[in-house]
């Protein structure tokens, strides 16, 4: 390339002579330019010097308009939030507050922490306005002699700084490092699971069976021999969903003489019992082999219900049992897609299908639950099923080999997670599991935060009960490493570090800056982990920030449940049936409308006596009356979430004094999220 010969600087330096010329124009639309030297016309002109008064005025007006618009938007959001809070508080019933019971210890600890934080915040604000911000200003040093002490308050503040640096910061640093290590271990586990899922998709790995598994050339007639299958529907006061679940199960495509449906009703409401009996009678009239069972002594919750049903004498004639909760709607081909996997596989004890949710787009809460459950099914369970042949039974939408249940000890009533209990015991006895990601069963997720919170409490306290009860058997088995990782990584470590690190240590470090957490811990890795969680549900990517904040908010419930289950607190044995909304898919509604025509209804009731017909009509009128009756919803106030909201917002104010940008925004948004959840502003809204 030819050399660049530029002598303009040298020329301007040596030949700049004469008087500067100033050109002034009377027209204000032209700029005032001062020319110095012969090459000034060729040098770039500064833009700021080329603006006249009118241009500057318009720029200032535009910036002011943007600032006013931004302030208006923030004011609108803040005013809307205050209005929603006022509405929630005005509609809150006096009995609508959360009952703490034996879990009051956590709420008391959070309140004490909040009171201490407010006290320290007030002290720090006074010190800041007195000019004692030693950590924010490097030029200032902490006084070491009595001559530098200005007042008694200054002496107290300097003593607090020494106490904080010598005695408070070291244990916080040690605890934060321990939690960060757990956080990294769990993140690596999550990353390995995602890589395993990608490998499964890349290699197209999935369980397969013969096209005609039940064909038998030696058999008479059609040449097909189907195994005997028992289908169980356990339910308890499921007024909203009993009809659609019974209807879906009764339409399963399986020979009628090779299937029996057990409706296991534990309802204590006689009106619901009568409705379920009428539904069973209706399908029995259609030729379905269906039985209604009701226990007089309702002990053991769902485990006791299933145990009682398996004790019937006629169960001995059946080889497999399929279980569906009351809100599940299997497709007609469910059994033909699951039962064939047992053929020529005598070590197989369980075939588990995937859940899909009919109400996943109902509100923000259901969308966030869908993210978690999609990752659980498509990543965690699929990878565990392919590479380990073990995963936790989901309690429904699965088919068990009855022999595996019997050899593993059957259903036990010792925990609130009877499904995980039987899965662990079956795996310890050498049985293998298969997960089918492409066999999907419709169900519901909780639409209200109250129902979701109770469900999550049971799901996280039960595994800790089971871990404590099975620890001896696990340690003496050859599968100790596998099951210990299953319990420790995903059931104990996750709720512990999530609550401790982001809800306790992070706000604490705002008042103890010597133990400040790095930005990658509170921002980069959590966002990356949330991104991995959203991979199975790509349509949920716009909710990545709400998902991250809500998962941290739920950590208080999961941590409380984990401690309750581990130390046998009273709430760990609490079983509350998850409230259902009774939603069906559009195809289900169309099929029900087509089938319940007047002509088919008259054909169904031809063989019914007058007394039974009268009873059915009364039940139908009662059902319509209940459907028309408005349901009064009571808002809840959740004390632990509200206390943590004020704690995090207090820490956010303290972070402003230290000018910590990322920490401030995280604490502020996390505190607002806790506030919304504590006031029950997420999920099913007040009608």
Automatic annotation (TrEMBL):
InterPro entries: Glyco_trans_2-like (IPR001173), Nucleotide-diphossugar_trans (IPR029044). Residues 321-525 form the Glycosyltransferase 2-like domain. Signal peptide: none annotated. Keywords: Cell wall biogenesis/degradation, Glycosyltransferase, Golgi apparatus, Membrane, Transferase, Transmembrane, Transmembrane helix. The chain crosses the membrane at residues 64-85, 105-129, 180-200, 492-511, 517-535, 642-659. Pfam families: Glyco_trans_2_3. SUPFAM superfamilies: Nucleotide-diphospho-sugar transferases. Gene3D superfamilies: Spore Coat Polysaccharide Biosynthesis Protein SpsA, Chain A. It is found in: Golgi apparatus membrane. The keyword Transmembrane helix applies. It is a multi-pass membrane protein. This is Glycosyltransferase 2-like domain-containing protein.
